[in-house]
Amino acid sequence: MNDLVIRVTVNGEPRRWTVAPGDLLLDVLRREGYWGVKKGCETGECGACAVLVDGEPINSCLMFAAQADGRKLLTIEGVATHDQLDLIQEAFLDHGAVQCGYCTPAMILCSRALLERSPKPSEAEVREMLSGVFCRCTGYKKPVEAVLAAAHAEAAATSGARTRSGAAKPTEAAASGATKSRAAPRRAKR
Amino acid sequence: MSERSVVGRRVRKVDGFKLVTGKTAFTDDIALPGMLIGKILGSPHAHARIKRIDTRRAKALPGVHAVLTYQDVPRVPHTTAGQAWPEPSPYDTYLLDSKVRHVGDRVAAVAAETRAIAEEALRRIEVEYEVLPAVLDMEHAMDRGTAVIHDEPDSTGIEDAARNLAGAIHRELGNVEEGFKQAELIVEREYRTPRQQHAAIEPHIVISWLDADNRLVIRTSTQIPFHVRRQVAMILQIPVSRVRVIKPRVGGGFGGKQEMVIEDICAALALATHRPVKLEYTRHEEFFMARTRHPQILRLKMGVKKDGTIVAHHMSVLAATGAYGGHCTTVQGNTGSKVLPLYRSPNLKFDCDVVYLNAPPAGAFRGYGCPQGFFAQESLVDEIAHELGMDPIAFRLKNAIRQGDVDELSAQLGEGRKGLPRVIRSCGLPQCLERGAAAVGWWEKRNGGRRGAGRVLHGVGLACSMQGSGIAGVDFAGAWLKLNEDGSFNLQVGATDLGTGSDTVLAQIAAETLGVSLDKIIIYSSDTDFTPFDVGAYASSTTIISGGAVKKAAEKTRDAVCCFAAKLLGASPEDLTCRDNRIFAAGGKSVTMSEVAMFAFYREKTQVMEGSSHFNTDSPPPFCATFAEVELDTETGQVRVPHLVTAVDLGVAINPMQAEGQAEGAVAQGLGYTLAEEMVLDEAGRVVNANFCDYKIFTAKDMPKLTTILVETEEPLGPYGAKSIAEVPINGVGPAVANAIFDAAGIRMRRLPIRPDAVLQALREQGKAAR
């Protein structure tokens, strides 16, 4: 089969990629320099490869690159603005939620998606979301604490001021799908 | 301790920024022009000879640059175990061999332009096997007439190859036979523990190439860069000076990377092709071709007086090392040497046989023989305490080793050579027990081991454990510091950060000693060309041994700085103190570290730089008390752990936040080991559950509430009083949960993992016995 040319928006930037039909989104993203997207199992079990596609967390090892044509992607590289970290990233650092860091990009992206949809999540909701990302280092306690702390900090920042202090503008620009999910939550609460 | 400014603080990891932003950091995060993909052809048979191997069709495939078999590479017996030389493991492994000894064992290796071409090349390699009987049952591996797994004449260090006996250990203190005669109660039990997978989220991966100076560079996800350099040089028969090993960020190790797993074969492909070669394991290959925890069958016999005093203790272990014997005597040696001495007993005996099987090879795994041993020992003493009507905490306190004691068993069970007796200079176990019991609600929640009515039963259980901090007389490290113009320092250490946070902890130690802020330390680690030697990250050694080297190097550097500062301040170097990035004279006059640096460089024409090596002749144990609360569903057999308390005496916590994280990660693996994780092999030696769907590690939803209590003591042998915490918290989880199950329901589970069907079976048998 012939190669395909696809157009995607990654972290707010338009991209034009030539891909083979069987190329996985995970492999193409890494090939294109998005090294923060990690390979852990290639079968959709560990979640390390998670990226946001139109605001939705997706295992990029279970998606063909061709399927991303016309979609808006957010990878970890798009979460901070230059060196200004997002509140979730700050919380992960402050709470010791990062050990080896291999699952960290996926955890942060999935947390970002959760907080867009559910700004005041319960611990159970956070654990439900994080259960899609395997971590072998932390026992999950500090990552859960970090997400809850980030939610608290964001709530305080938005109520105190119109703009989030230190928050990543790309999350507002690139993942405009996020505003969609705020209006229409994709998952019913259990 | 309140006067310390950096040590003891919950500071952010120094490498945290790049990890939360996904910057290039891990082995795979580079693109080298012309890089080829390496793949290994794994054996489909558990035990076979290669009668014929034809690679011509594979070599002819366009895009294939090399195909290697045993005919193409040197035959150098070695061990892949990451241990100090001379490694105390059999030299029974070959880069490529004409015999395969487990499903997934190396048959051949290829390097090709793309993964697809490499995989096609593997399919085109023609192999004719003489299939041999597979030895898979550890209880019959030594039987007369069983196939011999290591029948090659050139392997060395095997205890008795003809009987598939990789290693054997027999030690005794006192006389247990006489001791048992003094006992008023003797309990003898058997325990079984499974094959566990490390399941680091980053699989094994190596990229190897020849650099511009024709030196072999190996960029690898490893715990042991310096052992890899030595071993690869030996296996490929090139000088150490021609090899450079670089360890970038590692996505988890846990012992699975305390092993030279694929560096040798990747380097061989790089040498054969003169191109960079990347070799990485798929998740499936991780289960077949990496390493596992040693499964064990443990028989324990303990004799006590009616007042609970232990008079004799005999542990017999049968362990399986799989197809190759890396770590076979040292892991099992630990099962004896770190477990038995927890309790004072005048008579101790340890017997162990480690057998080969046609199964994936075992190796190092967090705890290193202790999870197996403590599961058995802590379950047994719980049973004995119950028999005697004695509170389990009281039984531990009565018999446990204490400050000032000398552990003689360690002298007998050193790593491959005569060990050194262990003096207990710090012991916080009583406080661990007290604070842990309070945190779990021990007195309120104890049920007593009598099965009540109701569908869901509740109980709490306890286990004590200890470990070591570094290998006495073996582990050593080097550290090097140099001063820069702005008063910052480059700190170069061989010490290997796996995500454990050692870069941060070592930088904290350097900053504290030099009197500078943490941001003034630029740490670079684990590059064999640029950093001094370090044995690597294992045996809970980094904080105490590498930290010891860093502290010494920093003290020498501080002294050198003070010599220059003294000239600027018109004072005596001995009268100066360093803090807050300044050097103070007795009267209060001070200069900044930067001023001293500029003076040393440009006036005195000197680069302030100092280094040091460090080792210990003892291994101070951290102590741990683990408390588990369980809910047991008598209809489904499922066991839930709502709350797990870990109280650890780690000496002084250099970074309490990182230390807690270590404990929390360790217990997550311990919970998996106890309730869910087991590599299952079929009758042909194939791993049946070689994926994350069927091999279940705990997720965020499965985890209990975790309470981590750091009990601080001052250990004289550790920098700023530190010991270790990396491994010990995993040891008590299994027995604490098993003991809690007994407390809840009156049944003893003596086999890990504790499966619902086994619980139901035990409840049924208990019901029958009652009638």
What does this structure look like?
The complex is a heterodimer of chains A (190) and B (771). Chain A contains 7 helices and 5 strands; from the N terminus they run ββαβββαααααα. Chain A is of the alpha+beta class. A 5-stranded mixed beta sheet of chain A has the order 2-1-5-3-4. In chain A, a hairpin with a 2-residue loop joins β3 and β4. In chain A, α2 packs across α5. The longest helix of chain A has 20 residues. Chain A is globular, with a radius of gyration of 16 Å. Chain A starts with a strand and ends in a 7-residue tail after the last helix. With 771 residues, chain B is an alpha+beta fold. Chain B contains 19 helices and 28 strands. In chain B, the strands form 7 sheets. Chain B has a 7-stranded mixed beta sheet, with helices on both faces. Chain B is globular. The chains are: A alpha+beta (190), B alpha+beta (771). The interface between A and B is large, with 52 and 55 residues.
List keywords for this structure.
A: 190 residues, alpha+beta, five-stranded mixed beta sheet, B: 771 residues, seven-stranded mixed beta sheet, 19 helices, globular
Strand tally of chain B: 28
Largest interface (C-beta under 8 Å): A-B, 52 and 55 residues
Rg measurement of chain A, Å = 16 Å
* Overall pLDDT confidence of chain A: 87
Order of helices and strands of chain A: EEHEEEHHHHHH
Strand order of the largest sheet of chain B: 3-5-1-12-9-10-11
Largest sheet properties of chain B: 7 strands, mixed
Broad structural category of chain A: alpha+beta
Residues in helices of chain A, as a percent range = 25-40%
Percent strand of chain A equals: 5-15%
